[in-house]
TrEMBL record:
Transmembrane segments: none annotated. Keywords: Hydrolase. Residues 60-162 form the Serine aminopeptidase S33 domain. This is Alpha/beta hydrolase. It comes from the Bacteria. The keyword Transcription does not apply. The keyword Metal-binding does not apply. One of its GO terms (molecular function) is hydrolase activity. InterPro entries: AB_hydrolase_fold, DNA-binding_regulatory, Hydrolase_4.
């Protein structure tokens, strides 16, 4: 269940207006102008209608599923779509439950969304064929969703994952937010989070501690690239080291010096693109 966000520069409740002063303007303009297909499916729970944009590449069996962050939507992921498309990937950009054009009542912090991501992967295979090679990529809550998805029993066509600044668990992240953003002391912070977790269980069907990237990563044997900014204070950089250690598959870690939350690609696009390209060349086969 979602916590109402405070004012944060990286939380985009809606679509950011595109101007020439917008960071990564050319990539985002490409996304805005490129021809898109519109896909949809029903959510794994509650039968909500979920919508996505799909941008085909030329004669490619490779597809990346791009997952946005909390209170964002697919339209804000254009720069990432351009990056993967330039590397020869079909790009599928879903709106998560209760975001963008998708139906839904509660935000699942990755726990509810992971099962929808599996369904999107199955739809890619159904539409593009058994020879599909699928990469799952996400930023912030999308990064956590990526990690939580990695612990599922996924089709063999899912080759690897890239997560950018995802948290260790929803509970850990909300506790951190309460302290860092709202200066809430340990009491009443911890009892309030437990109360919120109980309400979330009643309303959305899961405890906050269940929404754990760490627990799911321990089940993962596929390759994963972990990316985090060194100046991330929202999802603190220390979380990525715990996530990295938890994963059981081949793994790589990129810390982008000076980058704040969800700003690693914007802060150092050449480094980011090179790391992604090299990782995919090695593992998305």
């Amino acid at each position: 269940m979602a916590v109402v966000p405070g004012k944060k520069s990286f939380v985009t409740n809606g679509t950011v207006q595109l101007t020439k002063s917008t960071p990564q303007y050319k990539q985002k303009l490409w996304y805005k102008q490129v021809k898109k297909q519109h896909w949809q499916l029903r959510s794994a729970k509650n039968n909500y209608l979920l919508r996505a944009n799909y941008i085909p590449a030329k004669n490619s069996a490779k597809t990346v599923i791009i997952l946005h962050g909390y209170m964002s939507n697919k339209e804000n992921m254009g720069a990432y779509a351009q990056l993967f498309h330039s590397l020869g990937y079909n790009t599928l950009l879903p709106d998560a439950e209760a975001h963008g054009q998708s139906q839904g009542k509660y935000v699942g912090y990755g726990w509810l969304e992971k099962n929808d991501v599996k369904k999107w992967a199955e739809q890619v295979i159904k539409k593009n064929g058994q020879k599909s090679k699928i990469v799952i990529f996400g930023v912030s809550m999308g990064g956590a969703t990526t990690m939580m998805t990695s612990g599922l029993n996924l089709p063999k066509q899912v080759k690897c994952f890239i997560e950018d600044c995802g948290y260790t668990s929803a509970k850990n992240e909300i506790e951190h937010e309460a302290q860092a953003l709202y200066n809430m002391p340990a009491f009443p912070r911890f009892p309030l989070v437990e109360i919120l977790s109980g309400i979330t269980k009643l309303k959305a069907g899961y405890f906050l501690a269940q929404a754990s990237s760490l627990a799911q990563l321990k089940k993962n044997t596929r390759p994963m690239l972990f990316i985090h900014g060194s100046k991330d204070t929202f999802v603190p950089t220390k979380m990525v080291y715990k996530n990295y250690r938890a994963s059981r598959g081949p793994k790589q870690l990129l810390i982008v010096k000076g980058a704040q939350h969800a700003k690693s690609y914007e802060h150092n696009p050449a480094l980011y693109a090179r790391a992604v390209k090299q990782f995919l060349a090695k593992y998305a086969k």
